[in-house]
Design goal:
Length: about 325
């Protein structure tokens, strides 16, 4: 183990950001002694970011339920009986008011999520209005709308969308165990279209779905080896929802989740690594370890798409205890 630690300490962060990571190398990172791994992640973090600043994003579901995908973790899938209603899209005024409230509460980025496989042309017209209106408030905009055609990507670019979220979810070798209605390559193709259009990428995954350590390393390898890797990397801890195929999945050890944050930070040193779904189930101590491991972005608010999230007051109290403060990204 001392040999592994020495091996990775010889690699400077400046070399790592241009490095192609093998799954085996990332798995070795995961297996480092916990203190060594966090020390390495914190060193990398401090080279590129203010270690006490955290970027605050708020996520709103603009279209909930009835999704035609069969993602095993998702309560919005039409394949699962979870009690989530199939609702029509919110109107633009409602979305703008939610964005204004989020901004007043300290959020710098507003993310809009819709439950569908891919948007239709009429859907896209409404989304474009939302993007323009939220941008007019001075906030960064992000959207997660499923797969995108080249035409839809171009429309989002023209509307001024800052970030597009499209998660890889897991390693390609495990993907078929979780989703069968969409291929892994479909996700990569959408990311490529978004990147070519000059829109920033927000792409990460979910851990705790029953994947092996090697498969967890495989997810990080897929993300880190994108050229370039995403500007934002949300790391989600599975929220086990009754009625989904993964409702009885074995809970991931909290320290293994912290390790995932640290490995993401080391392999993608300039990315915003976001502590995402599953925070409601985490103690303040575990969240503090995640920040120490290099997380510097959170979803801020009472709810994500359909699952709970720590209340704003709890978040403010935690950040105050840690001496941390909000950071607002500057638009690129």
């Amino acid at each position: 183990m001392q040999t592994q630690t020495a091996q990775f300490n010889r690699l400077s962060p400046s070399l790592e950001q241009n490095k192609h990571w093998s799954v085996a190398e990332i798995e070795t990172l995961f297996k480092l002694p916990f203190a060594d791994l966090l020390y390495r992640a914190q060193q990398t973090h401090r080279e590129h970011f203010d270690p006490n600043a955290v970027q605050l994003s708020t996520l709103l579901s603009i279209k909930s339920g009835g999704c035609s995908e069969d993602c095993g973790y998702c309560p919005q899938s039409a394949f699962h009986s979870t009690g989530v209603e199939n609702k029509k899209m919110l109107d633009v005024a409602t979305v703008v008011q939610a964005a204004r409230t989020a901004q007043q509460n300290g959020a710098g980025r507003f993310c809009m999520g819709a439950a569908w496989r891919e948007p239709g042309d009429e859907d896209m017209r409404s989304v474009l209005e939302m993007v323009k209106a939220v941008r007019d408030l001075g906030m960064e905009t992000c959207a997660t709308l499923g797969m995108l055609s080249e035409d839809h990507v171009e429309q989002l670019r023209e509307a001024g969308l800052d970030y597009y979220n499209h998660n890889l979810d897991t390693a390609p070798e495990f993907y078929g165990e979780i989703i069968t209605t969409r291929d892994y390559q479909d996700r990569l193709d959408t990311l490529e279209r978004v990147r070519k259009a000059g829109i920033n990428l927000c792409s990460g995954g979910i851990v705790g779905m029953g994947e092996s350590l090697t498969q967890r390393a495989g997810l990080i390898a897929q993300l880190a080896n994108l050229n370039p890797y995403p500007e934002s990397v949300p790391i989600n801890n599975l929220v086990r929802v009754e009625g989904t195929p993964l409702e009885n999945a074995e809970e991931l050890d909290p320290l293994d989740f912290v390790r995932t944050i640290a490995v993401a930070r080391i392999t993608m040193p300039r990315a915003r690594v976001r502590l995402s779904a599953g925070r409601q189930q985490m103690s303040d101590a575990v969240q503090a370890l995640c920040f120490l491991a290099g997380a510097n972005s959170i979803f801020y608010g009472e709810q994500l798409l359909t699952t709970g999230n720590p209340e704003m007051e709890r978040d403010r109290a935690l950040l105050d205890k840690l001496g941390m403060y909000p950071f607002k990204d500057t638009r690129i």
